[in-house]
Amino acid sequence: MINKERLTNKFISYVKIDTQSDPHSDSTPSTEKQWNLANKLVDELKAIGLQDVSIDENAYVMATLPANVPHDVPVIGFVSHFDTTPDFSGTNVNPQIIENYDGKDIILNKEKNIILSPDYFEDLEQYKGQTLITTDGTTLLGADDKAGITEIIMAMEYLVDNPEIPHGKIRICFTPDEEIGKGAHKFDVEKFGAKWAYTMDGSQIGELEYENFNAAQAIVRVEGKSVHPGYAKDKMVNSMYIAQDFINSLPRLETPEHTEGRQGFFHLSNIKGDVEETVMEYIIRDHDKTHFEARKQMMQDLVSDICSQYGRNCISIEIKDQYFNMREKVEPVMHIVDLAEKAMEEVDVKPIIKPIRGGTDGAQLSFMGLPCPNIFAGGHNFHGKYEYVPVESMQKATEVIIKLAELTAKKYE
Ligand SMILES: [Zn+2]
């Protein structure tokens, strides 16, 4: 159905363009090189024949596929990001194509002995017989999220070429800087003008997500008193011991390494200290809003307890919310998830619905007034040299987009 060779070539042409974002930059996009792909995408969208193709001063690319039915259909949108993570090199990506994968080890790089093995990455087994695109072991691949971009463009092209498939007005947007948490920051929701949208930014085939963590960051500061150790009796206060009390008073099993599914956690991500001062950085995560609030309260209470124990303001905490679970924004419009589920089933993809143990741009967009569940883009092992994507998964994701457009138009007939 979806031309495999054309899809593959398009994807490869995108991943060869370095679009790594930079968390230390204040500009948008955070790196100049992201313009290279953004501008190319503008040209391609125009060439396909989409309308209102635009790129703004922050490199957000938008376009419209006009409706081809006479009745009113809500405008829906598809979103993906063109930057790649700052965590791993995206320079000189040299994709390898493995046709008819035999289910065995894949040598990514002979010289450096880098092997992509199903012994370690069991997910590989389900793609036996398929076409895989991998790295050469020296960079990431960038399927996150250039697979999503490829799928959206292929789907729009298909709908233009096959006007007998009914659909309402469709808006698409490609964003910069998702990987540094800013993909939604300068997203003009009003200009986008969709009733709801989907990010094509999930991992393996079938993934459908509309729940993510509630997230906050906490900085805990402990103040000690440094005195010459030889003359310290009843005078020295060692901030590191107080910090240790604080750490040990939080539930040890409610940490990332002991939790899964919908279980929340406290995560001590950094600690720096000497006698005089210790600073701890925590992140707090929970899908449940009530539990999330209780976790923050628990940390506050602990700080008060320790202060009263030492009889002075020796410890303080600063908590900042980061993002919230989109579920509360999606549940009132649950039909948008149902439609995605149905679209998957109609193209023989088994939906895998699970809560994200992290955040997405869709979560931020949902709180900006654009409910936005996340659909698989097909890749695995994001943000590193073992990243790969089966071409068949990208074909299926493209079909899901097309089917979603069709089902939405039919639902409102
Ligand atoms: Zn992504």
From TrEMBL:
Molecular functions (GO terms): metallopeptidase activity; tripeptide aminopeptidase activity; zinc ion binding
Annotated positions binding Zn(2+) 1: H81, D144, D201
One GO cellular component term: cytosol
Stretches assigned to the Peptidase M20 dimerisation domain: 210-309
Main location: cytoplasm
Gene Ontology BP term (one): proteolysis
PROSITE patterns: ARGE_DAPE_CPG2_1, ARGE_DAPE_CPG2_2
Active site: D83, E178 (proton acceptor)
The keyword Metal-binding belongs to this UniProt entry's keyword annotation: yes
The entry's keywords: Aminopeptidase, Cytoplasm, Hydrolase, Metal-binding, Metalloprotease, Protease, Zinc
EC number assigned by the record: 3.4.11.4
Annotated binding of Zn(2+) 2, by residue: D144, E179, H383
Pfam assignment, any one: Peptidase_M20
Cofactors (names): Zn(2+)
Cofactor note: Binds 2 Zn(2+) ions per subunit.
Classification via SUPFAM superfamilies: Bacterial exopeptidase dimerisation domain, Zn-dependent exopeptidases
Subcellular location as annotated: Cytoplasm
Reactions that this protein is recorded to catalyse: Release of the N-terminal residue from a tripeptide
Family note: Belongs to the peptidase M20B family.
PANTHER family reported in the protein's UniProt record: PEPTIDASE T
Role summary: Cleaves the N-terminal amino acid of tripeptides.
Name recorded for this polypeptide: Peptidase T
Provenance organism: Christiangramia echinicola
UniProt gene name: pepT
